[in-house]
Amino acid sequence: MLKNVLNFFLIIAFSFASPITAKGTIAPDSKTENKKTNIKEYILHHLKDSHDFNLLSYTNESGKKTYVGFPLPVILWDNGLKIFSSSKLDHGKAIASVENNYYRLYHDKIYKTDVEGTIEYDKENHPTNLSPLDLSITKGVASILFTSIIMFFLFKSLADSYKKNNLIANGMGRFFEPIVLYVRDEIAIPNIGKKYYKKYMSYLLTLFFFIWFLNILGLTPLGINVTGNIAVTFCLALITFIITNITAKKTYWKHIFWMPGVPLPMKIALAPIELLGVIIKPFALMIRLYANISAGHIVLMSLISLIFIFRNWIGSSLSFILAFSISIIEILVAVLQAYIFTVLSALYFGFAVEEHEHE
Amino acid sequence: MDKLINEFSFGLFFWQLLIFIGLVFLLKKFAWKPILDSVNERENSIKEALYSADKARQEMEALNEDNKKIIMEARAERESLIKDAKITGSKIVEDAKNEAKVVAEKLISQAQESINSEKKAAIEDLKAQVADVSIKIAEKILRSELKHNDKQSELIDDLIKDSKL
Amino acid sequence: MEIPAIVGAGLVVIGVGIGIGNIGKGAMEAIGRQPDATGKIQTVMLIAAALVEGIGFAALFAV
Fold first, then answer.
1. Which residues in chain C have their CB less than 8 angstroms from residue B4's CB?
2. Pairing relationship of beta strands A73-77 and A95-98 according to DSSP bridges
3. Using CB atoms, which chains have 3+ pairs under 8 A with B?
4. Between these two residues, A100 and C12, which has the higher pLDDT value?
5. Subunits that touch chain A (at least 3 Cβ pairs < 8 angstroms)?
6. A236 and A272: one domain?
7. For residues A124-138, b (16+ Cβ closer than 10 Å) or e, as one string?
8. I want to staple A130 with a disulfide (CB 3.0 to 4.6 A). Which of A111, A112, B4, B63 is the partner?
């Protein structure tokens, strides 16, 4: 699907670009076509997690591609823990040998190979080599770790500033304290209720700031895309799902399996629908965050790459203006998606602990 | 859908789960609990301060009211006291007057009584004396008159005349 | 001739767009009528919009 969205944007780009660059000839020349695939690959590559923290890459005069960035540790479980630096893989160009095992990076995935690094394919051109359990500290994991550390020290300092300053926050805390209170007063209490909100507060606050910070981090030129990663959003949605079902009261389950106050045939009809809803709700959470952030990154990167396709001042300045305004919208989306994820989580918790008076 | 499953990276999921749950618990212990507790404490103290200020104001008002009441009461009391004093004063005067009157009357009547009795006694005395004197005079007269026999018979004649048997 | 999946995706996007547009319209009218309840209306609006969007995404990713 995302590929299709990408195609759509590139088609638009070329429908603008071709008359200008090719001076009226509609057929795109091979150079532009090549550039188009390059950009597409670059964007798709950016959306994925990678094994090293790559800031930028360029091709020097002798045609050698140089990467600027730093390697991250690769951790594999392949009959024992194998830990080595990602510089050994060299962006898929080298074969890492660890204790007589050989690994190679192919399409952002590590495969076990022989000494020459041959990769065998099946009929559909998928590699058939064994892929070991990959627990590497990838770019995404490093970003998560970084954000977590920042969050920990930020909010610990806020907590400490209360003690030092006679219950008044200072410094950065002045900015974050109203947001913490907003999460409590506008998200947790109205959706969960005064009686039960306290036990969900830690999760909701962590969730909100975690998503928000990672969304913002994704907008920096570091090229990080964490919340636009299905594994991350799946994890968050899974935790919401588990908390909802663990803390659910009896009435919650009763409303799912045997809806009170409706006729019997309706009860039987509603049960599977409600049960499906239990799974669809967190699924929608997962997809929403993933799709919003991915789509934002695709749009933004496509607009920026238009500069390199147009290669003239009208188109480039136009795409700059577009990219700039989309960036501002993305900042809004970053906080909005964090807010919506948190509100909906709180809403689901509220459903789980709701007490119905009409029985 | 296939793309999503294809894109799913177990390593990222594993680390995310581990770090996120760890972060929730760490932040709960070191940040959220102290922050929310402090905020609660602060809100409570503000609420309490407001409440106590309100209470103090109410007390103040009540006190003012009381003061006014006390002043009013004092004033009323003073007025009633003055009134009472006036009444008692006039009453005392009246009483004194009356008593004096009564005493005076009594004195007068006593005086009159004694005057009367004195007068009576004096009259009685006078009467007695007059009688005595007259008897003596009469005796003397009689003695002198009755020295002569004819005179004695004249008297007897008179007396017989008078007696009119 | 087979209709490509992206056409379906486009239809879904149109539907979701109309839906979210209606939600926004409703919210604005409600705010206009009762400016005091702006905060509450905004929250409900965002939740409703998010739910519609969720359906849209679910359909898109099924493509």
1. 61
2. unpaired
3. A, C
4. C12
5. B, C
6. yes
7. eeebebeebebbbbb
8. A112
- How many pairs of residues across A and C have Cβ atoms under 8 Å apart? 44
Q: What is the pLDDT of residues B105-148, one digit of tens each?
A: 888 888 888 888 888 888 888 888 888 888 888 888 777 777 77
For B101, the token pair is 């009157």
Question: Phi/psi class of residue A166: alpha, beta or left (left: φ > 0; alpha: ψ in -120 to 50)?
Answer: left
Predicted confidence band at A215 (pLDDT cuts at 50, 70, 90)? Answer: very high
- Give the pLDDT of residue A6: 59
Average of per-residue pLDDT values in chain B: 86
Phi-psi region for residue A46, left (φ > 0), alpha (ψ -120 to 50) or beta?
alpha
Residues 76-135 of B with CB under 8 A from A: none
* Residue in C9, C46, C54 nearest the CB of A287: C54
Q: Does B4 reach chain C within 8 Å, measured CB to CB?
A: yes
Are residues A238 and A308 located together in one domain of the fold?
yes
State whether A337 and A318 are in the same domain.
Answer: yes
CA A245 to chain centre: 25
CA distance C47 to chain A (A): 7
Domain-embedded: residue A302: yes
A258 and A217 in a common domain: yes
Can you tell me which residue has the tokens 């005057």? B115
